[in-house]
Amino acid sequence: MAIPKKGSRLITVDGTVFRWRVRHKPTYDEGMAWSPLSFAVERAEKPGRVLVVSLPCARPDNWLAERTIAVRPVLVAGCIRRAVDQGWDAGQPGPVFILTVTDDELAALLGEPPQYLVPFLWGVIPEGGGIKDLPRCTQLWSRDTPATNRAPSDP
Q: CA nearest 101: which of 80, 72, 116?
């Protein structure tokens, strides 16, 4: 199994260059939040055994608005180091190496408490946040509100 180059990102961890990628479209199980968010990692030069990391939350594009996190390079680097410590040899051929990350391990890998996000109709709200935390929505109009106080361009 190899990771497609298109859509993947490069990261250097301890002098070795790796390629990592989150699947572009969710599977049905991922969309329903039955399967967790996962990403794959392999060596960029002479790829061998692939690492699949399973995180303790749903994908950001899940259909049920379950909590999620952003997969950032600091998390990917931490997972690569953890997998190497557990015996993953990226240069040797072999079956997929699976690393399952728990909620408790997530903070250690990130170096800080995880910032969970909750997908919402127009964007993503930080867990515990509200409608004012949405990045693209500034004001909601009710259909019952008269149009007298609205800007001319608003419907």
A: 80
